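Please go through the sequence line and token line underneath and see whether the fold suits the sequence. See right below:
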Amino acid sequence: MTGTVIILPGGERFQLEWRRTDPERWERRLKAKYDESRSAERSDKARCLCQHRGAVLPLQIRYRADSHSYHLAVWPNEGSLHEKTCPFYKPDPEKSGRASYVNSVIREGEDGDVAVTLSIGLRRKGLPRPVDDTPLPASDRPGQARQRRMTPLGLLHLLWERAGLTEWRPQFAGHRTSTVALGRIASAGTRIRAQGRLISDLLCPVAPGHEKFGRRLHAVVRTEGQENHLFLIGFVEALEPDPRGNFTMALNGQRDGYRCFLTVPAAERNRLARSHQLAAATLALPEAARQAHVVALLYVTARNILAPNSRWRGWIQAEVRTGALMTVSRSMLPFESSHELAVADALVAAGRAFEKPLRFDAERDLVFPDFILQDTARNDGYPMEVFGRTDEAYTTRRAEKENYYDATFGAGGWWSWDATTGSRMPPFPSGRLR
């Protein structure tokens, strides 16, 4: 966000980078303009330089009582109207699987925070309520919003999206590591609530060489009580059977001071393998042969080992109750097939700017692009679709997609690759001249 100019009420110019380089000045100027921005007309509020249909896009100056600090926030439901390169841009929910949720599942607040309705109960004691898999009524038309709850997969996708990890810019090359990604996820969790609790209060990332994350895990377990429930998130190294008929999972970095054992009951391991076949196939490969990473968001029951004579006294025993897996490229971009991975890697190598819409909990009948190029002459992005199967059901599905894209973007107004023919990947649409 270096160099991004904000216009404060009264016409004063304000630099977003001051939050990092001059935090005292940042707080002083936002505090001085707080009341004026609240009472100003829409066109006179704080704003960036983006416009939508010739009108300015206002920003909010918000005060956070918990940290006694001021910040700037996008206006509710207007993030997708900003330029793709603007720090206040947010993906359009209608261009991802978020469109499958009814309005009450993701509720965006005035300060940009969101509250979600989860399919699991976040309880401090005892067994968590099971995932509610009750079928929902059939939709009247393909793609209609009908999901009334967010599963752990939906939450993982929301965290990834809110952390900005679904987007790619050439300047990200060399900087988007697994540890950086988890740091951004931890920050994103501070802006998401479920059942009155901040996700960040229960979210414990596991990353190599990150002592702060390790200390946090033990602090959360101490705070929540002897037996409690929390989320672990990290990159899976191994998922192997144990002598008791269950499975042990190792997250990358787990051995670096986390002092934590992670057990997956056989039934939950089998559910994860059925629900996330690409991730399971990736983990079945030797680690050196994997071309991608597998991310796990796990809702666990955790307790301290307190047996006085145990060599593991003070360690944490965590058992997975439910969770989700997601495959991501080495650039931390999610994908759903080997063909999508090939396209994502090719776009990164070509120095393109793009986003990867996520499925969340949407059924397969919801149509949205596999990728959206953000650096073409088209302001609303250039959709991209990869066709990777030839079975009868998919052929019908493909026709639906083609009709949708032709009707929405015009024939020839979207990019596609039929990867089933063995043909080379077509050239990408030209980027915007710089």
In short: Residues 342 and 425 are 9 Å apart (CA to CA). Residues 126-142 have pLDDT under 50 and may be disordered.
